[in-house]
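INFO  loader      accepted 1 record
INFO  loader      residues=271
INFO  predictor   begin
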Amino acid sequence: MIMTPFTAGDVTSFLTLARQEGWIAEPWECDFLLNTFPDGCFTARNDAGETVGFVTSLRHGTSGWIGNLIVVKQLRGTGVGTALFCAALGALRDGGAATIWLTASRSGAPLYEKYHFTAVDTIQRWVGVGTSHHGRQLPVVPCPESFRVLDADGWGDRRDALLEVTCGRGGAVARDGGCIVRQPCGVAVQIGPFGAVDDIAAAALFDGMFQTIATGTKLFVDAPAANRGAAGLYRQYGMTIAGSNLLMYAGKQPEYRPELVYGLATMGSCG
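INFO  predictor   done
INFO  writer      dumping tokens
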């Protein structure tokens, strides 16, 4: 096996493999990650030069996120995934990340526990459909500074680059109590990043966004299970849980406040 940098030329191969696994992955995420933290994105190739696995990572201020760890089925269990993971972990640590996040399936968690990752929460994927007869676009607005601060309060670190790119992709509803972003996701809609100071503010933000989603349009949101207000909110709109992963971290214990986090910014790759 040969480890090489993940480059723009590998994006198509990665997206093909991700679709085969049923992942929700969009080209913009690869572009963002490769432009923001290229030193932490890797491709594994076999001796014939064929791509057999990928991993990406993203560094914020003093924290980072490992995502998109995927290996072709016939090589799983051979150490390729571990090598990719270790490469990304080393790049984040070399880049100054004191806290490193990832999401893991319950079957995959033992690997990360060997590297001192601890589960701190569960990320639940909520799925629903729009009901508005008059679906409309939301205005694209710059990410408010108040939301950047609120997001940092939730995750324990400033994540300005991630918030800027996600807010720029879709429309947003922003108020003093928080912000909710609606991003295109193929023919569906992804909700997030979504943060609010309390359940009342979150309900007002979500209702304002939900009224813009046309009848029958599928929507997704990944939210921390520890935020019970988020779960209650999504149930009110007929959404159901389609799956879950463990939220894990290693290194310095984060100042994590899930009660402020109602929706992640991406579907697993960046937090």
